[in-house]
Task: inverse folding
């Protein structure tokens, strides 16, 4: 029922079948990192080896960046999939489409007056859409795209959808409530390697994880990457199957969060 979902699925499937170069264009906050991880895991499960691009907060800014889009196209990207961004990037996306790089937008942010002319725009509040719940997070929208691609919910990614929903402060009702309940249960009983490592360095027992843990322990640590480090490391942490790498990244992230806290004390605007 989501707007353009059929078009998005068809174009992604075409790209996978033809072996096209796919790039996932995410965002540097928790919702953006979890959205990216969900999409990356899903594409890998259907046979694609998508690249991931997480913009730098200070040099690239939020959302579609014309210079980055041109670089990705010159680097061979044939299909670009935005997650947790893109709805406000009409000028950049329209230029990319005209130049031959197809763009599929998946987003949940406020709708601007000018919408992008992408191959597909998947958004729960798209004008004229009949989708019954408009308050999905970016990770929630990515989870829905994954569900459509796989023809069943990607249960192994529900923890990521929960992280994105809580960290992005969407209302925890309706679909969001279900995603968060199931995601918390997964984190408490069988957390993915990266989350387990992050909880360990934060000295939090996995069985005690609640929405508060996401909001005040996990979320700030992942967000610290976008402020003081390379936010792409967050996607790596969330998707790795390497215990040693996960622990190394978790320790680095914990250190960055300590630095962020010190900076916040000096300058509250860093929060």
Result:
């Amino acid at each position: 029922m989501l707007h353009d979902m059929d078009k998005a699925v068809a174009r992604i499937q075409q790209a996978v079948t033809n072996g096209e170069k796919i790039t996932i264009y995410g965002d540097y906050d928790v919702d953006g990192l979890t959205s990216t991880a969900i999409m990356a895991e899903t594409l890998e499960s259907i046979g694609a080896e998508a690249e991931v691009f997480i913009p730098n907060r200070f040099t690239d800014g939020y959302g579609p960046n014309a210079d980055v889009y041109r670089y990705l196209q010159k680097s061979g990207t044939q299909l670009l999939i935005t997650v947790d961004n893109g709805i406000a990037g009409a000028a950049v996306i329209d230029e990319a489409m005209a130049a031959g790089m197809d763009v599929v937008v998946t987003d949940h942010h406020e709708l601007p007056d000018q919408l992008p002319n992408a191959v597909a725009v998947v958004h729960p509040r798209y004008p004229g859409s009949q989708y019954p719940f408009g308050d999905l997070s970016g990770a929630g929208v990515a989870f829905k795209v994954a569900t459509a691609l796989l023809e069943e919910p990607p249960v192994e990614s529900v923890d990521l959808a929960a992280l994105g929903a809580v960290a992005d402060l969407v209302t925890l009702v309706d679909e969001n409530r279900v995603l968060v309940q199931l995601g918390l249960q997964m984190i408490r009983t069988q957390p993915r390697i990266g989350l387990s490592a992050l909880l360990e360095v934060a000295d939090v027992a996995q069985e005690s994880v609640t929405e508060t843990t996401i909001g005040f322990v996990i979320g700030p640590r992942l967000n610290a990457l976008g402020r003081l480090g390379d936010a792409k490391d967050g996607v790596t942490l969330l998707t790795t199957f390497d215990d040693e790498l996960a622990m190394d990244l978790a320790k680095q992230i914990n250190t960055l969060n300590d630095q962020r806290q010190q900076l916040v004390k000096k300058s509250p605007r860093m929060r």
Notes: Residues 66 and 92 are 5 Å apart (CA to CA).
